[in-house]
Amino acid sequence: KYQAMPSRGTSSGSGGPSAVPRTFALRKLTSRPAMDRESAKTKWGILSGAIRQIFRHDASELSFEDLYRNAYNLVLHKFGDLLYDGVSGEITAHLRSVVEKIRDQHGTAEDGNVLLRAITEAWSDHHLTMIMVRDILMYMDRTYVPLQRRRPVYDLGLHLFRTSVWEASGIRDRLSRTMLDNVREERGGRIVAREVMRAACSMLVELGRVDGSDVHGRDFEEPFLAETATFYRSEGAAYMASGCASDYVRRAETRLGEEAKRAANYLAPGTGAPLRSILDRELIEVHAEALVASPGSGVAHMIERVEVDGLKAFYRLFNRVPKTLDVLRDAVATHVRETGKALHVAGNGPVAFVKGVLEMRDRYGIVVNDAFGGEKRAQKRVADAFEDFINMDSRAAGFLVVYVDELLKTGLKVHSFTLCVTQRT
User: Fold this and answer.
1) Which 3 state secondary structure label does DSSP give 175?
2) Distance from CA of residue 52 to its chain's centroid?
3) Do 51 and 87 contact (CB within 8 A), yes or no?
4) Largest CB tally within 10 Å, which of 10, 212, 232, 419?
5) Residues 131, 136, 142, 147: is their CA dihedral positive or negative?
6) Which residue from 368, 254, 350 is spatially nearest to 311, judged by alpha carbons?
7) In contact, 136 and 70? CB cutoff 8 Å
8) 3-state class of 372 per DSSP?
9) Half-sphere exposure at residue 357, Cβ-oriented, CA atoms within 13 angstroms
10) Torsion of CA 405, 410, 416, 420, to 10 degrees
């Protein structure tokens, strides 16, 4: 290869017609010396030793600039395979030693949480050291990795943690059971190490993200959701067997609050939605009709006693599953019709009938406005129910005329009496 260089003593001006023509001399370029395999192995030996020091937390003496340059030269001279495979081997060897150490120290511990904590601490350490290793190998990540369609160094480290540590014999199955046991313990009122659970869930999500394995779903979320459905199916049936609707609503609200806190404290963000769906189905949707119709404690019982707080709790619970609100509205409307029909049947005369309707209006107004927050659909359903029962008897309109006439008569007598007293005084 040659490069054109201006000759000495020649004019270098841009010049017009009188400018001296520029002449060039050719100088041979010195090419970059090729790296042989032995030299490449030497550079890799330096890098592998440095990686081991990083894993031992003994990196204070390392020159990251020199290490980066060595990795850069290996990739530049077509020894990317040597570098990448070597890095993979070093990470694997390190992780195997980590697993053996954890097994020796905690493998026989009766409490699985001891092992779970050790694994999450190893994960936190591995996460940090892999960032340092990645920084040394940034040039390989930018050039060799996409060209050869291999995992970036950091993702490789996480993938190997999954295969070498989490999926090591006796680790995954035991820790999955431990995590599920912790949830059962907490639902039973006992205290668990939430920070360890949070670290474990976060670890599993990250491990699945880097290689699309969904390890979190497979090893925790799916069995967790299945157990949750079974647990609340059984508990919901037990609550219903108690026969008291208000107690059921109170217990259900307590459980829903506990599960919301659990999701916020340590479950993965993506677990919240399917968890809520299961809770809403097993605690609300399945039992909605039976709850509303519970004899001696259901909606009719609460309306008759104007138990605003109880009805408000019903509405609050059912509002989590909007379609169950129709069950609640229907119950109120049915109660309106049955109460109105009873007024017709009683046959106590026009005045008593209209007074009864006005008392009903006040009572159901409290139910809709105070307990249901003035919900428009509930208001319409109640209004329609009033119209239905009033129209059941063609005499109802006549009752209203008689009542108004009676009011006017009473009002005139009171007015005359008041006027007479005023004149005398």
Assistant:
1) helix
2) 38
3) yes
4) 232
5) negative
6) 368
7) no
8) coil
9) 21
10) 170
How do residues 79-118 score in pLDDT, each as one tens digit?
A: 999 999 999 999 999 999 999 999 999 888 889 999 999 9
User: Token match 């159901």: residue?
Assistant: 364
Whole-prediction pTM: 0.81
Structure tokens that stand for 76 in this block: 């530049």
Q: Which of 94, 124, 108, 103 is nearest to 168 (CA)?
A: 103
Cα 226–Cα 228–Cα 229 angle in degrees, nearest 5: 65
Residues in a beta bridge with 26: 4
The residue count of the chain comes to 425
Nearest-angstrom CA–CA distance, 10 and 5: 11
Listed residue (182, 181, 184, 163) closest to 172, CA to CA: 163
Classify 134 as helix, strand or coil: helix
Compute the C-alpha angle 308/385/326, nearest 5°. Answer: 60
- Summarised one tens digit per residue, pLDDT across range 211-260 is 889 999 999 999 999 999 999 999 999 999 988 999 999 999 999 999 99
The DSSP call for residue 171 is T
Query: Which secondary-structure segment (H or E) carries 5?
Result: strand 2-6
* Structure-derived torsion over alpha carbons of residues 304, 306, 309, 314, reported in degrees to the nearest 10: 40
